[in-house]
């Protein structure tokens, strides 16, 4: 058995927080270590979950772990986040989320009252999303050997026969739609850590988006790809897609929706909103023939009222995301190299 890593994963000898941040180091860890070791056709889809054909029935299977600090924040908490995150990953596969597993790793000494609050939040979020918690696990670690509580959720969903979501379906001309303002979640967490307040409170956008996604899939068979821009934000998600599809993406800076108070907070903290995590947003890549009816449907949904077109898939510069700026120039939008916001979800 190999005791030492035989390949140069990065220039670093130890794992850094940035390896879990959704940027370049995360991409290196996945592409150079995990994918080669566990290589198989289902994993190589590199989707938000595995799409499995089981005797003619297509299922989506996804898992995620949540380590956010603080545990409670304006707009949500770790429990609600754990449900919504996996529900949205399944939705991005085109699946109707059905069942979740729930795993707790709890540090000895953690408040029972806070555990009760988190459990109640999970229950409410699952009911809201229309999913059931059907299995789970609990582990308790020694005091000082954890950080209060970590949660893992895995989920299974059913994909309708007419739905086919894949980066391989992307084509030049596809419009890119997002269902509202970016960077709300990441900035909320950062402000809580820094104990900063704004006149207009900023709240996390955590939300279950499965109902909105299904309503769109019911009216259009030309949704080619979906992705939720969580860790690493909009920039990382789009870069991952361009590299997988071997196509380019053109963004319009003046069309990307950012709340004014979030924009001000980013400027104050020296952060780029394109690299900041979202927990209630999905990117839709849509055939232009269906763009307007998809946009109209999204705007009629609770979590899609601010939906808008922010860019387009192009043939030029495959593997790159370029942005048309408000002053008329063009710049490359790359993945972040380091870690802006650790422990964000």
Detailed description of the structure:
The protein has eight helices and 14 strands. The strands form three sheets. A seven-stranded mixed β-sheet has the order 9-11-8-12-10-13-14. Strands 1-2-7-5-6 form a five-stranded mixed β-sheet, covered by helices on one side. The mean pLDDT is 93. It has two domains: 40-159, PurM-like, N-terminal domain (60s Ribosomal Protein L30, Chain: A), CATH 3.30.1330.10; 167-332, PurM-like C-terminal domain (Phosphoribosyl-aminoimidazole Synthetase, Chain A, domain 2, Alpha-Beta Complex), CATH 3.90.650. Strand 13 (321-324) and strand 14 form a beta hairpin. By secondary structure, the chain is of the alpha+beta class. Helix content is 29%, strand content 25%. Helix 5 (210-219) runs antiparallel to helix 8 (291-299).
């Amino acid at each position: 058995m190999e005791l030492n890593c035989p390949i140069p994963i990065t220039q670093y000898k130890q794992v850094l927080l940035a390896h879990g941040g959704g940027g370049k180091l995360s991409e290196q860890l996945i592409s150079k270590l995990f994918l080669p070791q566990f290589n198989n056709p289902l994993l190589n889809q590199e989707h938000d979950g595995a799409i499995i054909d089981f005797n003619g029935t297509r299922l989506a299977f996804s898992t995620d772990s949540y380590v956010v600090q603080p545990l409670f924040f304006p707009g949500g908490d770790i429990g609600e986040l754990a449900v919504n995150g996996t529900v949205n990953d399944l939705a991005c596969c085109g699946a109707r989320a059905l069942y979740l597993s729930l795993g707790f790793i709890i540090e000895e000494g953690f408040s029972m009252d806070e555990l009760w609050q988190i459990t109640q939040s999970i229950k409410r979020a699952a009911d809201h999303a229309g999913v059931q918690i059907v299995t789970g696990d609990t582990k308790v670690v020694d005091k000082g050997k954890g950080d209060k509580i970590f949660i893992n959720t895995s989920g299974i969903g059913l994909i309708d026969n007419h739905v086919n979501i894949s980066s391989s379906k992307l084509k030049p001309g596809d419009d890119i739609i997002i269902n509202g303002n970016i960077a709300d979640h990441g900035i909320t967490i950062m402000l809580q850590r820094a104990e900063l307040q704004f006149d207009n409170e900023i709240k996390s956008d955590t939300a279950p988006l499965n109902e909105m996604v299904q309503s769109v899939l019911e009216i259009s068979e030309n949704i080619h790809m979906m992705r939720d821009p969580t860790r690493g934000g909009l920039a990382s998600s789009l870069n991952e897609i361009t590299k997988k599809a071997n196509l380019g993406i053109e963004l319009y800076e003046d069309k990307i929706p950012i709340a004014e108070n979030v924009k001000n907070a980013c400027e104050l903290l020296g952060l780029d909103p394109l690299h900041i995590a979202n927990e209630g947003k999905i990117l839709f890549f849509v055939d232009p023939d269906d763009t307007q009816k998809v946009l109209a449907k999204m705007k009629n949904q609770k979590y899609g009222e601010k939906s808008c077109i922010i860019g387009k898939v192009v043939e030029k510069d495959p593997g790159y995301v370029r942005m048309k700026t408000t002053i008329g120039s063009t710049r490359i939008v790359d993945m972040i190299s380091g870690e802006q916001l650790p422990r964000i979800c």
